[in-house]
Write a structure and sequence with these properties.
Order of helices and strands: EHEHEHEHHEEEHHEEHEEHHEEHEEHH
CATH topology of one domain: Rossmann fold
Shape: globular
CATH architecture of one domain: 3-Layer(aba) Sandwich
Largest sheet: 7 strands, parallel
Number of helices: 13
Strand order of the largest sheet: 3-2-1-4-5-8-12
Oligomer: single chain
CATH class of one domain: Alpha Beta
Distance between the termini: 46 Å
Radius of gyration: 20 Å
Number of strands: 15
Strand content: 15-25%
Length: 364
């Protein structure tokens, strides 16, 4: 057996995507092999695979690449069964990720998110040596949060109770809203039940807004990157609602660290769901992000307001205390630093036009 083949193998579904690329890079640097399972349907993701293979070329001449790509779909049960063969860890990211798409085609949304996850669980269940599993869910499982009392300040909404200091915790009742919320919520509940009923070592991250390198943000998904891309390309934004809505944002490097810790401590976190995000200290409204981009990147995007979109929460900030207590994890990258680092990557990768930047810390 070659040295490379002796390295442990991790499966990443949705393996060519933004978060997956960052996870794969970390695993490869830590001595793992990675198997990327992806249908390559999202524009631009092929360049993530090329980047991983280029950066992590085999050390031994003629050796196999530590990056394996299986072009497949989680709706294909046979392909999923082949993908789990021989792996020690599974990161399940494959998903239909947009509320807007789920409203247009709820059946597609269900088939990918709910049935696709069940296909993966059923592929793992009969294995003699079962891998640990981390599934990424969403804050949308908490619904619209219409009962949270808010006051409108000049640049953001602010809760009128103790949520300002701590955020939304896992004690919050589930209230699936939108087909997307239903499909992801159903999927996460299957993951948690398979841990309870069949003894799978599996955990769930209910994620807030993640941003960072390798993210090609769009209007429907990846709003921090989308705002920066539009600003640096001197294109206008559409802001749905009033721009006062608040999210906590987490730089992908911090998320990857949380994921590594979760797998390392899977026996402690298995069968549990955790809210994962930047928390109150890394919360920001849409209008505040526009101001931050203008201040740090010297590129204020013009924008127009459009009506609210279905299931858009006016305020969501994660209380990550439960995972912090279970793991010792803490986010480290501030919003200012994260925005500048993402802008640097977007410029260096050629995703955006180069532009004069005020801060001096983001070079064009």
């Amino acid at each position: 057996m070659s040295v490379a083949a002796a390295r442990p193998l991790a499966l990443i579904t949705g393996g060519a995507g933004f978060i997956a690329t960052n996870v794969a890079d970390r695993l490869l640097r830590d001595g793992w092999r990675v198997r990327l399972f992806d249908n390559l349907s999202r524009p631009g993701v092929e360049q993530n695979v090329r980047w991983l293979r280029d950066v992590h070329r085999p050390v031994e001449r003629g050796a196999d690449s530590p990056v394996e790509l299986i072009v497949g779909d989680v709706r294909d049960r046979a392909a999923v069964r082949r993908a789990v063969d021989g792996v020690s860890r599974v990161f399940h990211f494959a998903a239909q990720v947009a509320v807007t798409t789920s409203l247009i085609d709820p059946l597609l949304d269900f088939e990918i998110n709910a049935r696709g996850t069940l296909n993966l669980l059923e592929a793992i269940r009969p294995l003699e040596s079962r891998p640990s599993l981390l599934f990424t869910s969403t804050n949308k499982v908490y619904g619209h949060l219409a009962d949270v009392p808010l006051r409108a300040l000049s640049s953001r909404y602010e809760p009128e109770d103790g949520l300002l200091e701590r955020g939304i915790s896992e004690r919050r009742a589930l209230d699936f809203h939108s087909p997307y919320g239903c499909s992801k919520g159903a999927a996460e509940q299957y993951v948690l039940d398979y841990a309870r009923t069949f003894g799978l070592r599996a955990t769930v991250f209910r994620m807030s807004c993640i941003y960072g390198p390798h993210q090609f943000g769009t209007e429907d998904q990846g709003w921090v990157a989308h705002f920066i891309i539009q600003a640096l390309n001197r294109r206008a934004l559409t802001v749905y609602g009033d721009g006062l809505q608040v999210r906590d944002v987490l730089f992908v490097e911090d998320l990857v660290e949380a994921m590594m810790v979760a797998h390392e401590r899977i026996d402690r976190v298995s069968g549990q769901a955790f809210n994962i995000g930047g928390g109150p200290s890394r919360s920001i409204s849409l209008l505040e992000l526009i101001d931050l981009i203008a201040d740090r990147l010297a590129a204020r995007p013009a924008f127009q307001l459009e009506p609210w979109r279905m299931a858009d929460q006016r305020y969501y900030v994660s209380d990550t205390t439960k995972f912090q207590m279970a793991s010792g994890w803490r986010p480290r990258v501030t919003v200012d630093e994260g925005v500048e680092r993402l802008a640097s990557w977007l410029i260096e990768s050629g995703t955006v036009s180069t532009a004069p930047l005020l801060s001096g810390r983001v070079a064009s």
